Amino acid sequence: MDGLVEFRTEDGVHVVVEGVEDEDGARLVSRGDGPARAARTFEDSLDGVRAAAASALRVFRDGSLRPDSVELEFGVKLSAEAGAVIAKGSAEGHLVVRLSWTPEPSPTRPPGPDAADRS
Q1: Is the pTM for the entire model greater than 0.70?
Q2: Residues of 18-50 as b/e, b for ≥16 C-beta within 10 angstroms?
Q3: Among 59, 82, 84, 95, which one is most buried in terms of CB atoms within 10 A?
């Protein structure tokens, strides 16, 4: 199991998350028995992910597709040194995008003279 990393929020609350090994197998080791302390706040660590999400939303909302809704799913890993990074789901970065459109309601036609004959 990977080590624990403790982040502090801007409100002073401590959040402990399971740390991740980096690609060369090195692991962050804490001093003493407690979790390793992150150098950045929890919010600061998520700034890069927030910027990536805002950029992706801009691409999908402002393009020619014009969906009614955009849903982004990022896999996020937290590291004491790097903060939050977009995690890889396989060999590539992990990002799931769902776009949806609501069909236009079909115009209703006023009943014609033969509407009573169809019942």
Answers
A1: no
A2: ebbeeeeeeebeeeeeebbebebbbebbbeeee
A3: 84
